[in-house]
Amino acid sequence: MRLIWKLLRKHISVFELAVFFVANLIGMAVILAGVQIYSDLSPLLTGQSSLIGNDYMIISRPVERVGGATPKITEAEIEELRGEAFVENLGVFASSKFRVDGGIDFKGQKLSTMMFFESVPDEFIDVDSKDWGYSSGDDVIPIILPRNYLNLYNFGFSQTQGLPNITEEMIKRMEISLRIAGNGYVDYYTGYVVGFSDRLNTILVPMSFMSWANGYYSNDYSGDATRLILEVQNPSAPEVVEYMSEHGFVAEDKPSESSKALFLLQVCVVVIVGIGAVFSLLSIIILTLSIYLLLQKNINKLENLVLIGYKPTYVAMPYILMAMILDVSIYLISIVAVSCVQSAYMGYLGKLFGITLAATPASSIVAGLLLTVVVTLFNFFIIYRKIAEISRKRC
Questions:
Q1: Are residues 225 and 331 in the same domain?
Q2: 186: helix, coil or strand?
Q3: How far is residue 361's CA from residue 346's CA, in Å, rounded to a whole number?
Q4: Which residues, at least 6 apart from 227, have a Cβ–Cβ distance to it below 8 Å?
Q5: Could you count the other beta carbons within 10 Å of the beta carbon of residue 325?
Q6: Could you say which of 25, 34, 121, 148 would form a disulfide bridge with 91 (CB–CB 3.0 to 4.6 Å)?
Q7: Choice among 44-48, 97-101, 173-177, 302-306 with the minimum mean pLDDT
Q8: Chain-wide mean pLDDT for the chain?
Q9: What stretch of H or E contains 26?
């Protein structure tokens, strides 16, 4: 082997090998970095360990004409939605079927208005309060308001009416006088705001109260659903958008920031991996041309080695070992480079979110190993094929 290597290494171009090494190193590092970034950041945006959590969609059917019936969502459609892979959880909105009037006494001024109530299952509520709940016979009703209602008052209504701004804690201390009427009954309750929701843009009361009140104050109550809340990983996913369009549903809110972040992450990873693949492809082409040129320069020596009894496999071994050493070196250096980059951005994210994030380049190690095996086998193939071709021609 050493003698054959001495005979064949004369025409090896260090410059050509260096170009291949650098180009393949860049391509390999870029591809592995893209794979590792996606592997690290995707769980932080979606899934059970998400720092942001799953997203929620509120869907309904559009009202088609003035004065028409409110569009319904049937039980069969709800069950079909529950069976879709993109739906993590599903809840049905329950609306009040009775008249609600509310009023507060604010600095000597009595403010009153007509109101409405809605309810959703407790697992969809983003307010944690020990006072959330209702038992039959209670005259106190806990209420959750949308946070943007408070913002609209402080930065809109109060400015035009000369009223003072109010805080969340102040509202929580206020008593809301509630008059509920329907089905021949009129009763008075006291409402307390127990929290503010960033997720649900409606006035919420406990589902236990809504179920009882709709049956008591309304004689035309039906269980038909008009709005649903869905817990999904990514509202912007193509399968979600396609399903909503095909079944005539409309989403009330735009995709949240986590959905946009995941979509941008996917686009960036595709671009990064694509650039790396181009570099790797160019480097493989350079290596192929270099090997063919090197074999052509040494064709007389190769033919003579075959004639004196050396097998093509043995003659090709020095070139195969050279290609394998280059490929393995590129793989190891790429893993080290990706590990350094990973430690940097995971450390930054850990400080940003105030948590400790583990940084293990497992994804890049596996992906790099597979890519190295494929490239190395390709190198083996073209080298052995060329040596075998020379051998057949000479014989």
A1: no
A2: strand
A3: 11
A4: 58, 59, 60, 73, 92, 93, 252
A5: 10
A6: 121
A7: 44-48
A8: 79
A9: helix 14-45
Q: Mind listing the pLDDT tens digit for each residue in 11-28?
A: 566 776 777 778 778 878
Whether residues 63 and 150 fall in one domain: yes
Closest Cα to residue 37, out of 351, 373, 270?
270
Looking at the structure of the chain, the number of domains it has is 2
Distance CA 296, CA 166 (A): 85
| Same domain (yes/no): 45, 59 | no
Burial tier of 267 (Cβ tally within 10 Å: 0-12, 13-18, 19+): exposed
pLDDT greater than 80 at residue 253: no
Residue 289's domain comprises: 2-49+260-394
* Residue 346: alpha-carbon gap to chain centroid: 17
DSSP state of 382: H
pLDDT bucket at 126, cuts 50 / 70 / 90: confident
pTM of the full structure: 0.58
Is the same domain home to 246 and 115? yes
User: Is the model's pLDDT at 273 over the cut of 70?
Assistant: no
Q: How far is CA 279 from the centre of its chain?
A: 28
Cα–Cα distance between 85 and 242 in angstroms, integer? 13
**DSSP E strands, 125-260:** 140-146, 176-182, 185-197, 227-232, 250-251
DSSP result, 88-114:
EEEEE-EE--SEEEEEEEETTEEEEEE
Q: Are residues 91 and 178 in the same domain?
A: yes
Q: pLDDT (tens digit, 9 = 90+) per residue, 321-347?
A: 877 888 889 889 989 988 888 888 777
Please, which residues have CB within 8 angstroms of residue 293's CB and are 6 or more apart in sequence?
13, 16
